[in-house]
Amino acid sequence: MPCYRYRPEPTTQRQAIRELCGRENEYVPDPKLGEANNVRRKAAWDAKNDEVIDQGLITMCGDFEMSMCHESGCDREGLLLCDWPMGRSKTCDLPLCPGHAREIGDDRHLCPIHHPMWVKQAGVTRINPWPPRNIGAPRK
Asked: Do 58 and 50 form a contact (C-beta atoms < 8 A)?
C-alpha cells in the first residue's frame, strides 16, 4: 500500500471548517453580554478565524493515486498540469502545485521548464490580458 507525504496549501480556520464541515463558522452574539461586549468578542472571533494556519506535513496511505508537484523539494499536491503542446494533441501534463505553475491564461499553466520557451516564442507573458476587453462594445 503506497504512502504519500504532502503539505496542503495554507488556509484560514474559517475556510478549513467550511470545507470539512460544510457550514459557516460565524460568531453568534450573546444577548446577555450587551452590544459593546459582543462587538469586542466578534472582533476577536474574526481575528482568530481569519489567521492563516499551516497544517504541516500529512502522510496518507491507501489505494489511491496522488500526483505530487514535480519541482524538487516541493511537498505539495500537484493540482495543475502543464499545458505545453507535445504533438499529436498531447500536452506535457507535468503535475504542479499552484506555487510552481506559471499561469499564462485562464486555466492555462506551464511548468518552469516550458514557461521560458513560451515567453521567448510568444513575446508576451499572458494569452488573454486582464481585464478582458469588451468585444461586444460599439466602436467609437
From this structure: no
Grid cell of 105 as nine digits: 491564461
In the chain, beta strands by DSSP E: 3-6, 11-12, 52-53, 58-61, 80-81, 85-87, 90-91, 95-96, 102-105, 108-110
Q: Where are the domains of the chain?
A: 3-60, 67-122
Give residue 7's region: left, alpha or beta (phi > 0; psi -120 to 50): beta
H or E stretch at 13: helix 13-21
C-alpha 37: how far from chain center: 36
* Closest C-alpha among 75, 89, 80, 77 to residue 115: 80
Q: Which three cell numbers stand for residue 10?
A: 495554507
Query: Does residue 31 sit in helix, strand or coil?
Result: coil
Neighbouring residues of 95: CB distance < 8 A, sequence distance ≥ 6: 67, 68, 69, 70, 78, 79, 80, 81
Q: What is the pLDDT of residues 24-68, one digit of tens each?
A: 767 778 888 888 888 888 888 888 888 887 777 777 787 777 788
Q: What angle do CA 73, 17, 13 make, to 5 degrees?
A: 60
